[in-house]
Amino acid sequence: MMIVKKFYFLCLLIPFNKIIAQQVDQAIPVTSAVPFLRIPVDARSAGMADIGIATSPDNNSDYHNPAKFAFIENDYGFSVNYSPWLRQLVDDIHLISAGGYYKINSMQTIATSLRYFSLGKIDFTDALGNPIGNYNPNELAFDFHHARKMSKKFSLGISLRYVYSNLTGGIQQATSGGGSSAGHAAAGDISMFYTTPVKLKSMKSRINWGLNLSNIGNKMNYTSASVGDYLPANFGTGVGYELDIDKYNSVNFNFEINKLMVPSPRSEKMNGDTTVPDYKEMGTVSSIFSSWGDAPGGLSEELKEYILQVGLEYWYNKQFAVRTGYFYETDAKGGRNFLTAGLGIKYNSFALNFSYLIPTSATRNPLDNTMRVSLVFNFNKEKSEKPATETSPKATETEPKTGETIFKTEPIKASPLPTEDKTVTPSEEKAPEPKADEPK
Asked: pLDDT for 187-205, tens place per residue?
């Protein structure tokens, strides 16, 4: 049997959002594989309690709601995000992400992103405590997104995701004669976004709504004998209200609800393999539907699986932002309760965001008192404005040439018009001007 010498590795094998010291009211926390897929990657949303489903579109919409990309203002851009992990215990665990988007036209946008989670160096021992190797566990996810406007106010998003997880590096277990291997999975997201302006006296305002069904895919397997663990499929929806108070001041209010679409753990072993709990034998689709009403404690416990978040964002002159938010999760399902604060600076095509997490409960969070950072870049295509018709300048140039011919005959205009009745005196006949007219 392999024994992990470092305590924090146990915390990483168990989903961070479900680590609880004591179960309350006999409730059972919901667990899943690769929980890093549910860790927010950008500092802007982190400053508002991890909210992002119905906020205004930005470079990191890929994590929260890819459908928002269809309404993003700029033509293309990219971002880089960094989040330390368990920083109060170790300094070699972190989550890094990078992504970019490109607006094909006014109706559709494509985007891609990469998340990499390094779990630090782990020392492995056998049952007797003898070292058998060390490894740096890591996980990653590569995404591709496509967002398209279905109307002036509504858009849909489709995402494809490849997930890789290697927790042991294939180190062999001496007692079983076998070892674990890297896990692979494919998943997808379905997202929606709706935005509409609202009249409010002389101030401009807008209401946003978003929905994202994320991480819907096959189970993650680490051994050939394992039935696999569910991906952290998630249901998320939120509303946002943007208000431009005046030319320089604007504020955004946001509210969000999230729920894991993963079956609640049960001990029954009546179906199929009697060594495997029945809830783990379900397929992906059946597990998602059953997750809405399978809590052992009935409806009251099922409602405890919902996570509530509120966030506020203030902008001055669209250049300086201040953010805050509150995250609430019941003690029975994890007990993560914390405040967040954030700052943002934007200058031309560049933006820099910071966030900080302040715990408000006894339950420890891997991001307690941790600062996260995001770099954001946005650009627009260079539009070459051509004249309406390329032949128009040439036509203008030919007109003066015709005019020049007319002006060259101007001396003829000095002669009396045919309709004029003018008597020519003898003195005028001797004048040079009338003689110049005689040939005509």
From this structure: 999 999 999 999 887 889 9
